[in-house]
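Pipeline run #58 for the internal structure catalog. This entry was flagged by the ingest filter as a single-chain record with no existing model, so it goes straight to prediction. Upstream metadata was stripped on purpose; only the residue string is passed forward. Reviewer on rotation: M.T. Logging verbosity set to normal.
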Amino acid sequence: MSAVEEAETSVPGSADTPAPRVISGRVLRTGAGGVSLRVQGRVVAVTALLLLALIAVMGVTLTTGDFPLSVTEVFQALTGSGSDAAGFVVYTLRMPRILTAVFVGAALAVSGAILQSLTRNSLGSPDIIGFTNGSAVGALVVIIVLHGSMTQIAFGALIGGLATALAVNLLMVGRGLQGFRLVVIGIGVSALLLAVNSYLVTRATFQEALEAQAWLIGSLGNRLWTHANVIGLALAVLLPPAFLLSRRLTMVEMGDTTAMALGVDVRRTRTVLLVISVALAAFATAVTGPIWFIALAAPQVVRRLTGSSGPALLPSALMGAFLLALSDLVVQRVFAPALLPVGTATGAIGGLYLIWLLITESRKSRA
């Protein structure tokens, strides 16, 4: 970077924008001015703190439990120079589970951040609108009917999620992709899909029904490298285009009129980002089952911490990873020896958060 300049600009409001936004920060430009990047100090600080907190949670997860290990022993196990027992505990039992938690939490949080920005609604989350239950239907069909592998389950969840998104979009034709109308339609679709899930479980054998019901709760137990690899590959493919489109996403959130005036192809941007959001939620659901609360809360918590005017996808990813990893650590250590699924903990917290959010949104609508 050859030039660094302070910049503070304001974007005028439009008919479909509630209020004008003020975007401040530091702009980094190349010498030719062809590439520029806006950096906000508060966002950078929050991102760094979230990264440190996530590393700390991962460290505690790897070193504590029924077989306590020191940091040195964990490091030696990861490098292959430790004892066989430590290597088995770290590399086979703990590392796949914590990486799955980190990847799934990041996927859900970014999915929620994108969807909330597209709908301009804090309730616009894949678990509220029904995308998660749609992915669960696709995954259950593969698990119970087709007896497929992990890869087939992932693609089944993707197909189910995309089909649900298409159905919701068809029901919203002519009404736009925002507002409580979308939330209400999504809740209805989600309830219908939940009934389909229950029907599939009743048609399964006893053993399949037990496995499917345990999966529907949302769990990180017995997660292997196969699960971590599937969701890790999904993140490697889906996150880069999401980050590249984050600036357009911020403009779309300002309103269609403003975004088009700034040169954004709104329809194409919405379509691509919606597919990315659904795919992230689908692959996360395929790996762990439905995990509630993360996609709903993580992006909003990040916005409050950073004061960011945009979706802040990277801090949201770290917040989602941190929340799910911390929740899994709590259910493993606090409730031991009981095998409490992490979905139970996040669902309980998410229910309380949703009540608070509905009350807050109701007060705003009356104001």
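catalog note: Residues 1-24 have pLDDT under 50 and may be disordered.
catalog note: The chain is about 70% helix and 5% strand.
status: ready for reviewer M.T.
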